[in-house]
Amino acid sequence: MNNDNKNLTGMDDETFPPSVAGYMAEAVRAAPLDPMAERFMKSRLMTRVRDFERGGVTNTVRPDQGEWEKFSPRIKMKVLRREADGSSMSYLLRLEPGAFLVPHKHAIDEECVVLEGEVTIGSELVGPGSYHLAPRGMVHQPIRSEHGAILFIRGKEPSWRDTSVKETLRAMLR
Question: Between vectors from CA 165 to CA 162 and to CA 170, what angle results, nearest 5°?
């Protein structure tokens, strides 16, 4: 007997008794759900559909994976994830000792977590484990790292067009 044709009962599909098949079909008739269970099931199903449409797979980037690209003098960037529509991205910034980011504007909220080292944002010293939010539309104060740092950032892809010329000149003249 070919094992490929066996069903869950272990019987060959061609010899499966029709009376048993009829009982099984009756046992799986649609049963009404209470409204809460129905909403829960629909929510889970729609989440799976959205996950499938977005690629639905997890993504792990290990420390030795991905490429560090030059972002500016003394700063490298490693992209972890980009939204397909370009609306935002997650990335790491590695600031070498003495690195400096000029003041810039944010088109969307930008979230930052200091993973290693310390940075000074404006006049505030921010260390490992600290979270910093730069709200949309705000001019971000200069960011400096005296001894180097690694930052995790979630926001819009950085662009030199977002640089605030007036604030940069003020920062340079201080």
Answer: 130
Q: In whole angstroms, give the CA distance from residue 136 to residue 109.
A: 4
Higher local confidence (pLDDT), 143 or 50: 143
Confidence of residue 1 (pLDDT cuts 50, 70, 90): very low
SS3 21: helix
C-alpha to C-alpha distance for 23 and 157, rounded to whole angstroms: 60
Q: What is the pTM of this model?
A: 0.62
How distant is the alpha carbon of residue 33 from its chain centre?
35
CA 77/CA 72 separation, integer angstroms: 9
What number of residues does the chain have?
A: 174
Contacts of 152 (CB under 8 A, 6+ apart): 90, 91, 92, 112, 113, 115
pLDDT, tens digit, 9 for 90 and up, residues 17-56: 777 777 777 777 677 778 888 888 888 888 777 777 766 6
Residues whose CB is less than 8 angstroms from the CB of residue 142 and which lie 6 or more positions away in sequence, other chains included? 100, 101, 102, 103, 121, 122, 167, 168, 171
